[in-house]
# Entry
Amino acid sequence: MNFGIIGAGPAGIFSALMIKEQNPDNSVTLFDGNQKIGRKLFATGNGRCNITNMKAGPESYYSVKPEDLSPVFNQLGPESIRSYLYELGIPTVQTEDGWVYPQSFSAANVVQILTDTLLHAGAEIHSGARVNRITMSGSKFVLGIDGAGNTKPFDRLILTSGSRAFPQLGANTSILSELFQFGHRDLPFVPALAPINAKGDIFKALQGTRVDADVTVLKGKTELGSSFGNVIFNDYGLNGPGVMNVSHHISDKDAKDYMIRLNFIPGNLKRELDDFFYRHINRDYPYRSIYLSVLPGKLVEFFFKIWKLDWETSCRRIDSRTFRIHLKRLENGLIPVEGNRGFNFAQAAAGGIPLAEVDLQTMQSRKQKGLYFAGEVLDVLGPCGGYNLTWAIATGMVAGQSAAS
Ligand SMILES: Cc1cc2nc3c(=O)[nH]c(=O)nc-3n(C[C@H](O)[C@H](O)[C@H](O)COP(=O)(O)OP(=O)(O)OC[C@H]3O[C@@H](n4cnc5c(N)ncnc54)[C@H](O)[C@@H]3O)c2cc1C
# Structure
């Protein structure tokens, strides 16, 4: 059989590998608008390629009900992805919190090995080939390529064209309008895993500071989403996984209606501060050292200014009530937002082909027989930490396997 794949990112590459594994005689052709395949994969994890996460499962993803994703993860989870990567000659290592990287810590090496494996398996790669049209010839798919006319007909078509995130790396979603002929819709893409623009004295004072915090997006009094993770203060606002994981809740249109709430003392930290303070209450112990035990110095200095306290203040001068007020301030840092930084800075996107239009057991379209989807083109979004590559690889493998079976 003859397979066409639009988009040679991880979803397309892993689909192609599976098609060849099912039957080496299958003919597979990958088309990508970029001059090199796997362009975004090449940039992942700051060049280190955070390729999967041991905690990835249906409940890890936003924008969908967890049970919706079970058909994919019942077939392929992070363990199977790691085993398959090992077979391909990409052994992996995991950090304490489950983030998985190639042993080489090199996204460039991963792209090279995948390209070599595809070519060795006999897949055809057409890079610099943007597909601008899909037409049907009987039950087969014919693709129109920018400046190069029509392709041969394909028995099966796999669409892995990604989202609008990071257009600098070639992201382009114009092909989705070709799917309307089959009755598909595309939900508007929203930038996700992006830094957040915000203004205030705090950014000048804390520039470069990193701290783990609970981050919540509020619109009025409504909590839209929250995440725990590292937050980095910058001249333009906030960055880091804690903030990026909630950035898709902030819409462009009414960006000024949103606030970010930072809790700098989540979980055990509040209890620890409590313990330290009551050990030193009424003593000449520096009050700053209570906070320096768990928080970055710059953040403590900033709050001392807000509390109008001298840096040398001792615990003897602070009563229980004042201490409680200080803890409340640390739990409730409210920051007015000016918007997220948009697609140019977004590592992923929400939106795309609605899941209801795809059978996740096979990744086949419910609208058009022979058409399959995988990866970020679907309306699924994972947090930072290898979850989006997990989704692209897992769905790519399922699509390839079922299209070729
Ligand atoms: C800077 C950055 C860092 C990231 N780091 C991580 C990380 O460490 N871990 C993680 O899990 N995720 C990370 N991500 C997200 C991850 O890269 C994506 O989720 C993943 O690449 C999606 O795979 P995909 O194959 O679905 O789409 P893509 O990788 O976007 O591939 C789609 C391909 O389709 C091609 N295409 C589109 N339209 C056409 C057309 N009409 N004709 C031909 N070709 C077309 C595009 O050129 C593109 O190459 C990162 C993203 C960015 C931008």
User: Anything to note?
Assistant: Residues 375 and 392 are 4 Å apart (CA to CA).
